[in-house]
Amino acid sequence: MFQNLSEKLERAFKTLKGRATISDINVAQTMKEIRKALISADVDYKTAKSFTDKVREKAIGQKVLTSIEPGQLLTKIMKDELAELMGSQSSDIQIERGLTKILVAGLQGSGKTTFSAKLALFLKKNKKLKPLLVACDVYRPAAIDQLEILSKQVNADFYCERDNKDPVSISKNAIKFSKTNNNNLIIIDTAGRISIDQEMMNEIGEIKKAVSPSETLFVVDAMTGQDAVNTAKNFNEVLDFDGVVLTKLDGDTRGGAALTIRSVVNKPIKFIGTSEKMEGLDVFYPDRMASRILGMGDVISLVERAQQQFDEDEARKIQKKIAKNKFGFDDFYKQIQQIKKMGSMKDLVGMIPGVGKSIKEMDIDDDAFKSIEAIINSMTPKERSNPEILNGSRRKRIAVGSGNSVNEVNKLIKQFSQMSKMMKMMQGGGKNRVMDMFNNQMQRR
After folding, report:
1. For the chain, which terminal residue's Cβ has fewer other Cβ atoms within 10 angstroms, N or C?
2. Helix%, strand%, coil% for the chain, nearest 5
3. Which CATH architecture has domain 303-444?
């Protein structure tokens, strides 16, 4: 995420290395490099110049403490200004008493349908709501099928009328259905637009008028850069949406949309898509994103992701098993699944301060646990529950069944034994368990 921008900003700060103060002379070259870095990230020239002018104005003449280098001071100023540019603080979703109605709009291919399902899961988990996903894309039957499949994945109710080609009436009928079905959240997935089509814009305007949504969210593909900002501006003029959702931030994103969309449309970025998984949706925090762009990590978001996957009831069961030496590979397997739900491995490691720079050339595969899972799946239920019975012949059979060598199977069993002993010594460090396992896997690679 924003790797190229981060690297260029880091190089720009090096021009201040060894300086005692930040002066008009030594900051000029730095601002020039920062402006070039922003433009290469698809930030328009006017915004890039305005931003660097603000940073320069705040930096000039500042005294540098003996314990702080000029580059560090400028990084602090940059972080504050980047956060300000992206909106300063997070913007919560508007939840109403009774029934919350959310209208989702965007261009075709922006990830609207996937986001709708992710949002249903997010609000179900965090706000304890009962969601109803409504299919109002009457032009693409595949869109209806996709939303129906995703609704099952996130365990949300689903509503569609395949023979009805009027999305306005479908929306109205869905509201009536929600009342009899005891839903307190409706998420309406509308048809994607190929471009700013007036007829299609009128249609979504009619839907908004008919349902009076609590929130209207505009979904935009972050990989489209400055084009995303221009599209958001055109949509906002017609729809007057309440917030922006940036999808595909886990891809090859230059960052222009995230950095400038707030200043152009004066609407907050509310959510960001961080992976293709249904759990891959985060609230957008401008200050945290600024930290990540500057290579400072984001420990808070990392901890929050771990907490979202942390099941207290399951943890108590695990602790009892550890105390009785009953912790088995089936329990280990469940913990692996929790870690995988947290997001991509490279993204997670990049949240650790100081680590982002060191992993930029590393190929950290999202299937990092694939061989471990294969070995565990090749065990019998009895073997998973009782690792102590894994003798030589059993290990050989597991190696053949999992496509690994006997040496790899032995290595995993040894690491599992060591981890089990360590966990018994910790007894009660439930949240640390996730990070211990994560560190073990990184060392194993």
Report:
1. C
2. 60, 10, 30
3. Orthogonal Bundle (1.10)
Phi, psi of 188 (to 5 degrees): -100, 115
Q: What distance in Å separates the CA atoms of residue 303 and residue 319, rounded to the nearest whole number?
A: 21
What does the chain come to in residues? 445
What residues contact residue 338 under an 8 Å CB cut-off, 6+ apart? 309, 310, 311, 434
Instruction: Render pLDDT for 351-372 as a digit per residue (tens, 0 to 9).
Output: 555 555 554 555 556 566 888 8
- Distance, C-alpha 165 to centroid of its chain: 34
CB 249 within 8 A of CB 275: no
Do the beta carbons of residue 352 and residue 295 sit within 8 Å?
no
3-class secondary-structure state, position 234: helix
Model pLDDT for residues 41-62, shown as the tens digit of each residue: 888 888 889 999 988 888 775 6
Q: Are 249 and 273 in contact (CB under 8 A)?
A: yes
Of 355, 122, 107, the closest CA to residue 248 belongs to 107
| Token pair listed for 73 | 């001071």
The dihedral of CA 316, 318, 319, 325: what is its sign? positive
Contacts with 381 (C-beta within 8 Å, 6 or more apart), sequence order? 330
User: How far apart are alpha carbons 98 and 421 in whole angstroms?
Assistant: 50
Cα end-to-end distance, the chain, whole Å: 22
pTM of the model: 0.69
Residue 332, classed as helix, strand or coil, is helix
Question: Domain boundaries in the chain?
Answer: 3-85, 100-296, 303-444
Distances (CA, A) of 75 to 58, 84, 258, 315: 12, 14, 19, 40
The tokens describing 242, both together, are 């309440």
Which fold, 3-85? Answer: Four Helix Bundle (Hemerythrin (Met), subunit A) (1.20.120)
100-296 is classed CATH 3.40.50.300: yes
The DSSP symbol for 226 reads: H
